[in-house]
Request: fold
Amino acid sequence: MAYEYVAPRRNYQMIPYRQLISPHENGNPGFNRGITGIDRAKVNKIKREFDPNQVDPVIVSFRDGKYYIVDGQHTALAIYELNGEDGSTPIYCDVREGLTYQQEAQLFYDFNTNKRTPSAADKIWALVCADNPDAVAFKDLIERCGYAFGRRSASTISPINTCWKIYNSPAGANRLENILTLIHDTWPNATGAVNVTMVDGLNMFFKYNELDYDRDRFVKTFSSIDHKTLVNDAKAFYKSMNDRAYTMPVCTYLMVGRKYNNGLRTNRIKLVIPN
Reply:
């Protein structure tokens, strides 16, 4: 039997805050925050960051002549408080009709179970599409280093959020470009070498040893080492340590530094263990 799509009974309305009700039944706590109550921190965050162009409509069920909030109670309360706690404050609502209390509860569960938070790459790519100058420059830098961002290809890299954080750190674009070009020149045919462990470790490497390492030696030394082996060695080192100072980036940095120094009597780099 073919699936038959039935359009839900719904419409959009501006409803005064005082007419919105938190659903409950038979004296039990309502499914909409009835157990945990209102999260004041969440309400305050919505108020601090309020942008009418980004606010989703409050999901409401019109049942028995009343408007019951299904999802968006914190948003409605924040807008009410931003308007001086005026009960006539209009709230933009997505109104559903014909639902039972049980169906409302299921809808609340589904909304809060199936919501997918966009990935860091998705959000940064949205900034690129919005012509945000920083995001566009970030994308151009990645492509200048021989990699891709924003399209599926063999050269597309994955740790976008890690790279974005470095790009926006005090070290900035120069640090990120140094890291990516070094990885590309060392492992030119291995996009997988651009991973969180490697990028974080090399970020620390450049922080402490950018001025005293020899780039040609680095490329020659590490091009003969599989990047996966290097990462696995760093992870094993991390697991062997019982000291909070030895974070994963620190262990990766130390592993890279030790392999760089191996066999050198002079021109060794000085390794630093951050506190």
